[in-house]
Design goal:
Helix content is 33%, strand content 28%. The protein is built from 12 helices and 15 strands. The radius of gyration is 21 Å and the shape is globular.
């Protein structure tokens, strides 16, 4: 049968759009179903401030009476991503069928061409500051919170539709060692840095006052990266208001140099450890289970979901000192946690300045995700 592409409109089709990955990927090794409620807040234009920055349209695919895939297209209204197109696709999920993938990508392409686009790039789901890329390595790796996943067949089907690599991004795995939990000398105890370097825990109860500093450092630090689009304060607060309920009290910290915030990091426990039996559903009985498990579960894995260091410190000795202090602080905090597996991701393959200290710390490549592009104008 032919593939039917249906634009998403109305609550019923939107809910179907959010459920499709679970329906087509369930049971595949490496896939972990996110919570429906979290996907609603990520992709509903009325709930995510990101959609104020773009014009967008979601599509779902039906074949033989079943939902078989999804995609969405977006184009930035005013912002221009660094060195790439403002016309993007995201949330590409499909069964192993070239016809379905070609039809979904074709729907996104036609929608964007009608709005003047000559190049399409993606996936960004929904932006570079949340989830991005198609998994090309690490299909069987540990599923991690807020990281995309797709089957092995999907990259090949995208390439069959005329797409080629734009960039790869890398996610690293760090196994916490006994030596990390041992007390040892710190760069912050050295006389030349003792008074200049300070590390404080982010105040979760007053995250609104911390947010402008975090957003400023993040946007400054990543401003020259390929594909970068500034994280708005409204976007960050929308995400942070949910994260603060699952973030450990000492999961976020700020590095200050001479009294000025210069770097920050936020580590989240891997919620997939406690969500598997819920199959993505919070209602009606999932909410109390999740609350209880977040409070009582000893998590064994987590992810550095946000990190930033000011641009003025990049490729400078003082920046190396701040980065080293950041790494030492993560190791110090590991002594009071049960987390053994930390994922650092993602990092652009070309960002040697960021990759080198991560690799020197002993972290290994865990996942590689690819962003694709295609010329639309002939």
């Amino acid at each position: 049968m032919t593939v039917e592409i249906i634009p998403v409109s109305g609550i019923g089709k939107f809910l179907a759009f959010c459920r499709i990955p679970r329906q087509i990927y369930k049971g595949m090794k490496g896939f972990a179903s996110p919570l429906d409620a979290e996907r609603w807040t990520a992709f509903a234009p009325s709930l995510n401030p990101h959609f104020k920055l773009v014009d967008s349209q979601a599509f779902i695919a039906k074949k033989d009476g079943k939902w078989v895939g999804r995609i969405f297209a977006q184009i930035y209204k005013e912002m221009k991503p660094v060195d790439t197109s403002p016309a993007q696709f995201g949330c590409l999920d499909a069964i192993d069928d070239p016809e379905v993938v070609k039809a979904l990508l074709g729907a996104a392409e036609e929608w964007l061409k009608a709005r003047g686009a000559d190049v399409i790039v993606g996936p960004f789901s929904p932006s570079i500051n949340t989830e991005m890329g198609v998994l090309v390595e690490g299909f069987d790796a540990l599923p991690m919170v807020f990281m995309p996943w797709n089957p092995r067949y999907l990259p090949g089907l995208i390439e069959q539709a005329g797409y080629h690599k734009a960039r790869d991004v890398i996610s690293y795995r760090y196994q916490v060692r006994e030596s990390d939990r041992e007390s040892k000398g710190s760069i912050m105890s050295r006389p030349e840095w003792k008074e200049r370097l300070k590390i404080r825990t982010l105040d979760l109860k007053h995250l609104e006052s911390e947010a402008p500093i975090i957003v400023d450092i993040f946007n400054d630090g990543w401003a020259e990266n390929w594909g970068f689009v500034p994280f708005t304060l409204e976007e960050f607060l929308s995400v942070a208001n949910g994260l603060k309920y699952v973030m450990p009290e000492d999961g976020g910290f700020m590095v200050e140099l001479d009294g000025v915030p210069q770097a920050f990091g936020i580590v989240l426990p891997n919620l997939h450890e406690i969500l598997a039996d819920l199959d993505g559903r919070l209602f009606p009985f999932g909410v109390p289970k999740v609350i209880s498990r977040v409070r009582n579960h000893n998590f064994h894995s987590g992810r550095l979901v946000l990190f930033g260091i000011r641009r003025a410190l990049h490729r400078k000795a003082i920046g190396g000192v701040v980065t080293l202090a950041f790494i030492e602080e993560m190791r110090r905090r590991s002594r009071s946690l049960t987390i053994e597996h930390v994922e650092f991701g993602w990092v652009l393959e070309t960002n040697v300045g960021m990759r080198r200290p991560i690799e020197l710390s002993g972290a290994e490549v865990d996942k590689v995700l690819r962003v694709y592009e295609k010329q639309l104008s002939v």
